[in-house]
Design brief:
Length: about 290
């Protein structure tokens, strides 16, 4: 069994980016700039945004967090997004989800300029991904592809089973793994809560991507020998053994599943760091105007 170590891979990719930024700054140009909008006081959202801010600092990007009270109206928030869209000194804009219930996430995502949509959630970018055209690919799926590439894992002809069909992870993953590309060409089954006899699919998986948000849901008897397991799940589970009062758990029962795997991602330290590095790469692409040139 080999661990797919997101910390190692993301460190390497960040070092490469950092060198690029040093060269850009040495030429007297401005640094890439990522803006994150944070609405309300959700603890996990604050942690994610802080991690993104820290990563920007590590590679030499400028980052700005715009914080708004949970009571901000939908129209005010849309107006704030437009101000960032219009700011030529900003390359990437993300709105940390979830947002308060009185605001439509679809309207918020639609308001983001697709050229600055480094989370890859705007329908224009989703459409481009589906059509295999240049566009921003959502950070978590993109990070997973980078990891597959780094560990030289061939997807071609393999049975890829994805558990969870969210717009941000499972559904884009199903498209990316099945499309005609170096990190695709798989035969994909997309499972969800209505799937009957889920185990029959997970047991036939050569590549298993799990993104459902239920800690330790996938057990040893649900996978076959030699499988590649990518565990996207992150759930905070209360713990008295940890100073923070919680532990981060994946969707896979690591102790049982890992001995059967050829490759597996740990939680934490697997997909999480890759998601952040993919966001940075999208921001750099936005800065260089590579995708929408
Ligand atoms: P989500 O929007 O919460 O959707 C969960 C999906 O799992 C849904 O499609 C649901 O099916 C399916 N599901 C739920 N129970 C199931 C069951 N018993 N059997 C089969 N399918 C089931 O998911 P998400 O936003 O993709 O998040 C999933 C997990 O990944 C969470 O723990 C989240 O925190 C984590 N995550 C991590 C990263 C990272 O960077 N590492 C990024 C994003 C998300 P239905 O559609 O039928 O309801």
């Amino acid at each position: 069994m080999q661990l797919m170590d997101g910390r190692v891979v993301s460190k390497k990719l960040k070092e490469e980016m950092s060198l690029q930024i040093k060269a850009i700054l040495a030429e007297g140009q401005r640094a890439p700039h990522l803006v994150a909008i944070l609405v309300g006081n959700d603890g996990a959202s604050q942690t994610y945004v802080a991690a993104k801010e820290k990563a920007c600092g590590e590679v030499g990007f400028r980052s700005t967090v715009l914080r708004f009270a949970a009571a901000i109206s939908e129209s005010e928030l849309l107006h704030e997004i437009q101000k960032v869209n219009d700011d030529d000194e900003v390359d990437g804009l993300i709105v940390q989800l979830p947002i308060p219930k009185h605001i439509s996430p679809d309207k918020v995502i639609n308001q983001i300029d697709p050229k600055k949509d480094v989370d890859g959630f705007h329908p224009v970018n989703v459409g481009k991904m589906v059509q295999n055209l240049p566009g921003f690919v959502a950070a978590t799926p993109l990070g997973i592809l980078k990891m597959i590439e780094y560990y030289n894992i061939s997807i071609r002809g393999k049975h890829c089973v994805i558990v969870g069909r969210s717009k941000t992870v499972g559904t884009p993953m199903s498209i990316l793994l099945s499309r005609d590309s170096n990190t695709g060409d798989g035969t994909v089954t997309l499972c969800h809560s209505r799937t009957v006899d889920l185990e029959s699919y997970t047991r036939s998986a050569d590549i298993l991507v799990v993104a459902l948000g239920k800690p330790e849901f996938i057990t040893g008897d649900m996978v076959k020998e030699g499988v590649v397991v990518i565990d996207v799940g992150i759930t905070r589970v209360p713990s008295s053994t940890n100073k923070s009062g919680f532990l981060l758990k994946g969707d896979v029962k690591f102790d049982e599943v890992s001995p059967k795997c050829s490759f597996i991602t740990p939680v934490p330290g697997g997909v999480g760091p890759m998601t952040i590095v993919a966001l940075l790469q999208n921001t750099l692409s936005a800065y260089k105007n590579i995708i929408y040139a």
